[in-house]
Specification:
alpha/beta; four-stranded antiparallel β-sheet; 15 helices; about 10% strand; disordered N terminus
């Protein structure tokens, strides 16, 4: 392997019988086994977390593939201890640890401890949230959380929604509903268009493909100097498309762009959508957590006028994946995903007021992902979540400010959330060369396992990105990672200069 594992192999807990096989199924007869095995698993995780010294091991894709391929899945192990040892060796030793303060790459958060408790319970009981007769009160708990989220957003009493696996699925369902409304209004499928800024998430294009529209059906608007959707250009685009005989089925505004962390002018976009009679969707997968912030809730002003909203709880609510939701202002629009199956959710259940969540979902079987959000809210409360989010947004603002004065880096000074876009620079070095240097520096940092930053294309060039979602990360932690990037970039530039010479 390229580096030492982050969690050295340790002896199993003494209370785990090495020769005792795992119980096949969880039921009343295996309750004692459950207790023993959960204790052993708890100890394994506690040791792993306590021994993490860097965010990743530096294992290469080739090394990782060989490690996994060596496992014979046709030959079960002898007992719990052997299984846990293998999980440690194959997975935990080379996991990417989002809770480590030097992990600063993607929209991955450390998880709230109460959420872990909720998820363990959800996994063990294994409720399926598609129908009432498979879930019981879990259905009402999910509905209660959806109503709470809708109220926090400011949607009307007619609002409703459903939990999904993530922002991509939530955006897909929102656009499916918008398509359904447009077709119900007499539009032709071939004429449907979706309008979003050039900085919107790619899931809108994916959704257009899935919905039979094709990627070309997504029309992009310009952005302003801060990377936010240009509302004047939106007006021009909507007017032009109507003149061409097209039907705009939805405008997608973004509350937290992936690269810049920008929030589109939601109130102005909402007014434009009303003028043109267009469905208004807000992709708040990243910025939705601001509904818990007492200091920054105003950044979402206008979101309450949306027809649909995406919120990813597994980003800025500090929940384990997967935990997302799509909310709609008018619950009647959810009819566009409803299908009644006689064996599952017959139409007579509607008459009898049986609360089947599958009536509102693209999925059939769904796990009880809402429970981890429930346990988090009940243990911490929304204000505490908002404070944690404010902490990382404050940190990002401070990092941007510091980088403005750093001669080795250029920085994009704008951003409403917790991302920081920066680029190593050197005077008299061509941009094409600096593109290679920045990409090389990122890859070399990752290979050491000492830190992780992301990369993207911005303004036609390669930029590096910090995504700060760990409230425990300090300014000193960020500076350490930036110094590592600086060193790798200088080494890469020296190598390029040597090759040219």
């Amino acid at each position: 392997m390229s580096s030492a594992p982050t969690t050295p192999v340790v002896p199993p807990s003494p209370d785990v019988d090495r020769q005792r096989p795992l119980a096949a199924l969880l039921d009343a007869t295996s309750a004692d086994d459950l207790s023993t095995q959960l204790d052993a698993t708890r100890d394994l995780l506690a040791r792993a977390f306590s021994r993490v010294r860097q965010p990743l091991s530096g294992v290469s894709p080739t090394e990782a593939a060989a490690l996994v391929a060596a496992v014979d899945l046709d030959a079960p192990l002898a007992g719990t201890a052997e299984v846990l040892e293998e999980v440690q060796r194959v997975y935990l030793d080379h996991a990417v640890w989002f809770h480590h303060p030097h992990y600063q790459a993607h929209l991955n958060c450390p998880v709230a401890l109460p959420a872990v408790i909720g998820d363990v319970i959800a996994v063990a009981v294994n409720s399926s949230l598609d129908t009432w007769d498979q879930s019981g009160t879990a259905t009402h708990m999910e509905r209660h959380l959806l109503a709470w989220t809708a109220r926090r957003i400011g949607l009307p009493p007619s609002a409703d929604g459903i939990f999904t696996t993530g922002g991509t699925q939530s955006n897909l369902q929102a656009l499916l509903l918008a398509r359904g409304e447009a077709l119900a209004g007499g539009a032709d499928l071939a004429d449907l268009r979706v309008v979003a800024s050039v900085n919107a998430h790619f899931s809108s294009r994916k959704a257009a493909m899935v919905l039979g529209l094709g990627e070309d059906a997504v029309v992009h608007t310009a952005v302003d100097a801060h990377g936010r959707l240009d509302v004047d250009d939106l007006d021009r685009v909507l007017t032009r498309l109507r003149a061409e005989g097209r039907t705009v089925m939805a405008v997608v505004a973004t509350a937290g762009t992936t690269d810049l962390g920008c929030i589109d002018p939601l109130a102005s976009v909402a007014r434009a959508c009303r003028r043109h009679g267009v469905w208004f969707h807000v992709d708040a997968a990243y910025g939705g957590g601001l509904v818990t912030s007492r200091r920054r809730r105003h950044l979402l002003t206008g979101i309450e006028r949306a027809d649909s909203v995406t919120v990813d709880f597994h980003k800025t609510f500090f929940q384990p994946v997967a935990c997302s939701a799509v909310l709609v202002a008018d619950r009647r629009t959810l009819r566009h995903v409803t299908h009644h199956a006689a064996y599952l959710n017959p139409a007579s259940d509607v008459v009898d007021e049986i609360p089947n969540q599958v009536d509102k979902s693209l999925q059939t079987t769904r796990r009880f992902d809402a429970l981890k959000l429930w346990t988090t809210l009940r243990a911490l409360g929304p204000d505490r979540i908002g404070e944690l989010l404010d902490t990382v947004v404050d940190l990002a603002a401070r990092v941007r400010q510091d980088l403005v004065g750093d001669p080795d880096f250029r920085v994009v000074p704008d951003g409403d959330l917790s991302t920081v876009l920066f680029r190593f620079v050197e005077s008299d070095v061509a941009d094409d060369v600096l593109d290679v240097v920045n990409e090389t520096a990122r890859a070399r940092l990752y290979a050491t396992g000492l830190g992780a930053v992301a990369r993207t294309r911005y303004d036609g060039r390669t930029w590096l990105k910090l995504t700060l979602l760990n409230p425990a990360t300090t300014l000193a932690d960020v500076q350490q990672v930036l110094d590592l990037v600086r060193g790798h970039a200088r080494a890469a530039l020296a190598q390029v200069d040597g090759e040219v010479a």
